[in-house]
């Protein structure tokens, strides 16, 4: 199975590459569209600021490439900033338009909670996910499983659609969409490659879906 | 809600773990990657590698240790020790470290924190503070050079300044408690915890699982770090977590 890690110069791709290699994927880190066309699935990583990321994607014509994946059957997984880019827009350093796959906006965590206490930002550490529904590719999720995953982010998706949010966490009283899904697009706000056994489980399930879609186009 | 993090720390010298000789179950207990994997499997939430190599070769070796660890670990990890420039940070982060920690070099040139935060993001920049109580000053003073030199900074002021410059996390070690195994320094931890708005890791003094419970219930600290009690198997990450869980502290 060929996974294309979309390389647009943002963030460290080594850990995620290693996690996919452990799942016996062939991994290609590339920004070349001809190469990307040969892939079975895509990973959109990202660490850094939203406006820089969109600018780079657009310079490489990767923004249109990602949008047109909606007309294909090939899965794409956005991680952390990679998930945020799939939303309509972000308020990080001004207002920047995103890829518009998911409905919602990216904004900073509120600095005060409902009791007027200062909120520690970034939201960093292990937080359990609560699942509201299960996409097909996640069937067999055991309710008893520990669902802790590792988050590091200062911005989050808001005004989201209920049916697009598969699982969420709570931080400082705020609803944090953690795992989102729409058609062949998946987003994970946390880092599955750093989320211990449960992160590995989620990645393995996603990879299995890529295989399923490849074999049954 | 976020869980409290338990973080084993590995001292690495010339590519070898300095402590950790008690790990008879490991093929090579001196291999930092082997030991790191063991802690990952035990349920450690994060790891810290502290490079105490003196030689240039030792520092080169550390990059390999980081690369191998990133390939094997499924949890985040921080690398500290001898990181003095943006280039040093870049080498470690590119090799797969999630965060870098700076100590002496940040005191000597505080702009390093701001530069690192601008370049890599605050979440990557940990400022390690070694603090010791001073009767004369009636507060905790910051030390550098592995605790050999006192600075003009109080722990609270330096933590605030480091955060203002962009530090994303504070790794706070009590020099009074370090190695004593009589518990974390609650007063110091509380003072720094209340002074900044980023996560704080308590370090120094852990002797048993109860000490972790104490620091998590008597302060609002985010994480606690220990080295020797885990290396010498006086307790384990698993045991600490099960004690905390039983007593109602939220852990992974």
Structure description:
- The complex is a heterodimer of chains A (about 220) and B (about 250).
- Chain A has six helices and 14 strands.
- Chain A is α/β, with parallel strands linked by helices and about 220 residues long.
- Chain A has one domain: Class I glutamine amidotransferase (GATase) domain (Rossmann fold, 3-Layer(aba) Sandwich), CATH 3.40.50.
- In chain A, the strands form three sheets. An eight-stranded mixed beta sheet of chain A has the order 2-1-3-4-14-13-12-9. A four-stranded mixed beta sheet of chain A has the order 6-5-7-11, with helices on one face. Chain A has a two-stranded antiparallel ribbon with strand order 8-10.
- The longest helix of chain A has 20 residues.
- The model of chain A has no long low-confidence stretch (mean pLDDT about 95).
- The model of chain B has no long low-confidence stretch (mean pLDDT about 95).
- The relative contact order of chain B is 0.14.
- Chain B has one domain: Aldolase class I (TIM Barrel).
- With about 250 residues, chain B is an alpha/beta fold.
- Chains A and B meet through helix 1, strand 8, strand 10 and helix 6 of A and helix 2 of B.
């Amino acid at each position: 199975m060929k996974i294309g890690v979309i390389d647009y110069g943002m963030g460290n791709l080594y850990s995620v590459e290693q996690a996919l290699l452990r799942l016996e994927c062939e991994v290609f880190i590339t920004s070349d569209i001809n190469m990307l066309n040969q892939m079975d699935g895509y990973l959109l990583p990202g660490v850094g600021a939203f406006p820089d990321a969109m600018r780079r994607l657009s310079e490489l014509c990767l923004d249109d490439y990602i949008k047109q994946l909606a007309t294909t059957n090939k899965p794409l997984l956005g991680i952390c900033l990679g998930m945020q880019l799939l939303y309509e827009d972000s308020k990080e350093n001004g207002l920047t338009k995103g890829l518009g796959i998911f409905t919602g906006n990216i904004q900073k965590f509120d600095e005060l909670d409902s009791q007027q206490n200062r909120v520690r930002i970034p939201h960093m550490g292990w937080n359990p996910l609560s699942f509201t529904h299960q996409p097909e590719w996640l069937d067999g999720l055991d309710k008893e499983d520990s669902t802790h995953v590792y988050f590091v982010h200062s911005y989050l998706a808001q005004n989201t659609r209920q049916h697009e949010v598969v699982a969420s966490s709570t931080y400082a009283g705020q609803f944090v969409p953690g795992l989102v899904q729409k058609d062949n697009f998946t987003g994970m706000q946390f880092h599955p490659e750093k989320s211990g056994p449960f992160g590995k489980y989620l990645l393995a399930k996603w990879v299995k879906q890529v295989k399923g879609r490849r074999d049954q186009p | 809600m976020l869980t409290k993090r338990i973080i084993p720390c590995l001292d690495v010298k010339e590519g070898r773990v300095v402590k950790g000789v008690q790990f008879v179950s490991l093929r090579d207990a001196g291999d930092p990657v082997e030991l790191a994997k063991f802690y990952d499997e035990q349920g450690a939430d994060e790891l810290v590698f502290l490079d105490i190599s003196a030689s240039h070769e030792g520092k080169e070796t550390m990059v390999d240790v980081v690369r191998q660890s990133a390939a094997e670990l499924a949890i985040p990890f921080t690398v500290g020790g001898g990181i003095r420039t943006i280039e040093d940070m870049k080498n470690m982060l590119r090799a797969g470290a999630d965060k870098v920690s700076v100590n002496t070099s940040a005191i000597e040139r505080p702009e390093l924190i701001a530069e690192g935060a601008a370049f890599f993001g605050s979440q990557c920049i940990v400022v390690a503070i070694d603090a010791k109580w001073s009767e004369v000053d009636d507060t905790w003073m910051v030390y550098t050079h592995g605790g050999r030199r006192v600075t003009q900074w109080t722990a609270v002021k330096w933590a605030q300044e480091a955060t203002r410059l962009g530090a994303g996390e504070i790794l706070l070690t009590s020099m009074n408690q370090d190695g004593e195994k009589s518990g974390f320094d609650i007063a110091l931890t509380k003072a720094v915890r209340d002074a900044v708005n980023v996560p704080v890791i308590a370090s120094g003094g852990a002797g048993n699982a109860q000490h972790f419970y104490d620091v998590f219930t008597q302060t609002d600290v985010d994480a606690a770090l220990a080295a020797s009690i885990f290396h010498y198997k006086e307790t384990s990450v698993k045991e600490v977590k099960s004690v905390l869980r039983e007593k109602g502290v939220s852990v992974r």
